[in-house]
Structure formats: C-alpha cells, structure tokens
Amino acid sequence: MRDRFSDSESFSPLRPKGGKRARSGAESEYDGYLDLAFAEFAAGDFGPTDSTSTAFATDGPPEGDRWSTWDQSTPTEKGPEPRPDWVVTELGAVDTELGIVKTGKEGDVFLLERGVPGTHRSTLLAAKRYRDGQHRMFHRDSGYLEGRSHKESRISRAMAKRTDFGKQAIAGQWANAEFSALCRLWSSGVSVPYPVQITGTEILMEFIGDRSGTAAPRLAQLRSEEADLDDLWEQLTVNLSLFARAGYAHGDLSAYNLLVHEGRLVVIDVPQIVDVIANPRGRSFLERDVRNVGAWFTARGLPEGRVEELARALAFDARLD
C-alpha cells in the first residue's frame, strides 16, 4: 500500500475506536538471520519493550496509539534495501490500530496506520501477530519443519520433543521464518507484500488493499467475470517459477492465500515455506501447491494438462529432475 498522501482538506487519518542451499546476492544479507533472531526469541530477548523509548517519549503518543516500533528492530530485522518510498522510518511516527483484517491458523492480521503527526507522511501496514505455542491452531509443524534445524542442539531437541519450551520456540520460529522468507522472496522478484520489519513475533508488512483500508480480495473470492484467467495463470506461473528457482515451495498454497489487487496477483502467508532440497518431501509439497491452486483454475476452464505441465516445469526449475 502506498503513502496515503492527499491535499490537506481531504486527508483524514482514521483512529481506533478504543484508542541447504547457500544463497547469494541480495539474499545473502538474510543468511543466518533466522538462527540469530530465533535464538533471541527462545532466550526471551525481544529487545526494547517500552514502546515510548524514543526521543519523543516525554510527551507520549496520542491516546490509544503507540510510537513507531521502527527503532526497536535491528538492521537484519528490517526489510531489504532499497526500501520503497512509502516505508515510514521517522522515529517521531505513530502507529495507530485500525482494526482486525483477518484471523488465521497461526496468528491474526491487524490493520495499522503509521504516520508522522502534523504531516501527510502516512501509510497503511498489515501487522501479523503470531500466537504463542499454547494458543496457536497451526498443528502441522512436523512436516514443514523437516530440513530446518537450530544451531543449538538443546533447542532442536526441545522442538522435536514438543516440550513447553520447544513449543514456544517453534512459535517464535514461524514468525522469524516468515519474515526471512518474505525478505528473500521479495529480493528474488516474487510478488509478495514488502516486509517492513519484525519485532518479537509481530511482522509489519505492506498492506495489500485500497487507501480506505479495504483489503484486496482473495483469489477464491473473485467472480468468474472479474477474473482474467489467462493473465492470472501467467502471473502464478512466473511467481511459482521464481519460488522454485530460489529452492522453495510455498507449502500451503491455495486460492485462499493469493490476493488480487488491481490485477496484480500477490502471494501471502509463507511461514511454512519449504526448502525443496533440504526437506525430503520437498517435491511433494511443490506438486501439491500447484494442484491445490490449479483446481481453482481448472474449475473455471483452464485445461488440466496445463496444471501438470506447470508441476513438471517447477520440478525442473528447482533442479529436482
């Protein structure tokens, strides 16, 4: 979502009711980030917890809001550069909650406005907040975690045994894994929301929707007359090819985690991203992604042969053949 700039008469910010494969190039900046951030999470080190710990703390943010958390994230906990112009990095910015966008299996997504008071510098963000290990509904951890490990064997053993500590560690891993994946995918050219920053288990990312705060519809919600089937299939093919060439499968792809905004297909919800080389079931995840989302297209007239053709092409792109 780009900056919500307009003339002073029409600008009216909303307010809340209650106030193993080695990587290279741009991706290398994030190599090792998951282990580092995950270790900090598991150790309970979330960085500053006082949301008013900025140069402007003496006055405090407007009631019901919080100061921007931008300065609470380290450089590796911020999105890839060059950053889009709409990203608000000023320390005097204020984050305002505008409501919930959706609830999910592993966390909830909230609409947040980050803006600098007294200016037109403002943008909408999606804030994805992961639940802890005791309150998550995402119970398919084991298959997705194959091929992932932690450099500390103690943590790896706790995760494998599903101890209380292990469950908490797994919960932290999902947020870190999604942020790291978004950074790598964005840098690889995949159409995903730009990842702004991560703080603890909250990911702030580009809001895909309009300036009023209405989220873009999922592919599954599009009516047949609204869908340009050939164009959307072409966009899907390009994005999944970029996934595969980077060595990944989405892992849970369907028409419900693809958004369509002004004709642009956007891939969302990537915490369970699968390394198709390290994971022994990598190819099956890749093929399942294609067939799951392909079912939406074939139900609307796409020849089934094109789905199988794409599955074979992705296996080649991922060097599985």
Description:
The protein has 321 residues and is of the alpha+beta class. The chain folds into 2 domains: 25-206, no CATH class; 219-317, Transferase(Phosphotransferase), domain 1. Helices cover 30% and strands 16% of the residues. It contains 7 helices and 10 strands. A hairpin with a 6-residue loop joins strand 3 (107-115) and strand 4. The radius of gyration is 20 Å and the shape is globular. The two termini are 39 Å apart. 38% of the residues are buried.
Number of strands: 10
Count of individual helical segments: 7
Oligomer: single chain
Q: Give the averaged pLDDT, no decimals.
A: 78
Order of helices and strands: HEEEEHHHEEHEEEEHH
Gyration radius, in Å? 20 Å
Instruction: Calculate the terminal CA-CA distance, rounded to whole Å.
Output: 39 Å
**Low-confidence runs of at least 5 consecutive residues:** 2-58, 135-139
Principal-axes geometry comes out as: globular
Total individual domains = 2
Q: How would a textbook summarize the main sheet?
A: 6 strands, antiparallel
- Percent range of helical residues: 25-40%
Broad structural category: alpha+beta
Strand content: 15-25%
Question: Order of strands side by side in the largest beta sheet?
Answer: 1-2-3-4-6-5
Chart the SSEs and their pairings.
Layout: H1 33-42, E1 66-67, E2 94-103, E3 107-115, E4 122-130, H2 141-145, H3 153-161, H4 164-187, E5 195-199, E6 202-206, H5 229-245, E7 248-249, E8 258-261, E9 264-267, E10 274-275, H6 282-298, H7 304-317
Antiparallel strand pairs: 1-2, 2-3, 3-4, 4-6, 5-6, 7-10, 8-9
